[in-house]
Design brief:
The structure is a single chain. The protein has 227 residues and is mostly helical. The chain has one domain. 80% of the residues lie in helices and 0% in strands. Helix 1 crosses helix 8. The longest helix has 43 residues. The radius of gyration is 20 Å and the shape is elongated.
Length: 227
C-alpha cells in the first residue's frame, strides 16, 4: 500500500520552487521584451538581435527548475514512478538545451564588460559544460540500472541549473547596499552562488551515500544473524 503524502514531503519541492520564483519571473519579463517592441539598449541588444537562443533557454531552464523540484523527494518517486520517469526524460532534454543555449549565449552574445568579465565568462562555460556532462552521465547511469550514480549526477546537474536562484539571494543584498549592478564584484558573487550550490549538492550526495551504506551494513548483519 502506497503511503499518503505528508507536509514533510512537500518541504524540499516548496523550497526549490521559492528559489526558482525570481528567475522564473525574470525569464517571463525577458520573453515579453523579446516578443514585444522594447527599446534597444546595450543591456538587451543581444537578446533582441538574436532571440532564439534566449527563448529556448528561458523556456527550458524554467521547466527544468520548476518540474525538477519534485524529482528529489522519494515519496513522489515511489508514489508515481511512471510520472518520475516521464518527467525525467523531459527534464533531461530541457537541461541539455538549457546548458547548450547557455554556453552558446556566453560564447557568441556581445555581453557588456560590466555584466560579464573574463572570470564570469569562464565560469559560465564551465557550469554549462558541467551541467551537460552531469545529465549525460546521469542518464547513462540509469540505463545501466545504477540508481545511486544516476541520482548523484542529477543532483549535481540540478544544482548547477539552479544557479540563478541562488544568485538572487547572493546579489540582492550587495545591490541594495551599494547600488551597483556590475563589475568584478558581481562576477565574484555570481560565481559564489554556483559554488554554494555545488557544495550543498555534494553534501546531500554524501549524506545519501552514507545512509545507503548504513542500511546495507544493517541488512548484512541482519541476514548473518538469521543464518
Amino acid at each position: 500500500m502506497t503511503r499518503k503524502l505528508t507536509k514533510t514531503d512537500f518541504k524540499v519541492p516548496a523550497l526549490l520552487l521559492v528559489l526558482s520564483a525570481v528567475p522564473t519571473l525574470g525569464g517571463i519579463v525577458r520573453m515579453i521584451s523579446v516578443s514585444g517592441h522594447a527599446a534597444v539598449t546595450p543591456d538587451n541588444a543581444r537578446f533582441l538581435h538574436a532571440p532564439t537562443a534566449v527563448v529556448i533557454h528561458v523556456i527550458c531552464a524554467t521547466l527544468y527548475c520548476l518540474l525538477g523540484a519534485f524529482q528529489f523527494t522519494p515519496a513522489f518517486r515511489l508514489r508515481w514512478p511512471g510520472g518520475h520517469r516521464l518527467a525525467g526524460r523531459v527534464l533531461a532534454l530541457c537541461g541539455l538545451l538549457a546548458g547548450f543555449t547557455g554556453a552558446w549565449m556566453t560564447a557568441f552574445y556581445r555581453i557588456p564588460g560590466s555584466l560579464q568579465g573574463p572570470l564570469l565568462y569562464g565560469v559560465r562555460l564551465a557550469v554549462a559544460t558541467g551541467m551537460i556532462a552531469s545529465i549525460i552521465i546521469g542518464v547513462s547511469s540509469i540505463l545501466r540500472r545504477n540508481v545511486a550514480r544516476h541520482e548523484a549526477f542529477m543532483i549535481r546537474a540540478y544544482a548547477l541549473g539552479q544557479g540563478a536562484g541562488t544568485q538572487v539571494l547572493v546579489l540582492m543584498p550587495w545591490m541594495l547596499i551599494t547600488g551597483k549592478t556590475g563589475g568584478l564584484t558581481r562576477d565574484l558573487l555570481m560565481t559564489l552562488a554556483w559554488a554554494i550550490n555545488v557544495v550543498v549538492a555534494e553534501w546531500i550526495i554524501r549524506r545519501r551515500t552514507q545512509a545507503l551504506r548504513t542500511r546495507a551494513r544493517a541488512f548484512t548483519l541482519s541476514a548473518a544473524a538469521r543464518t
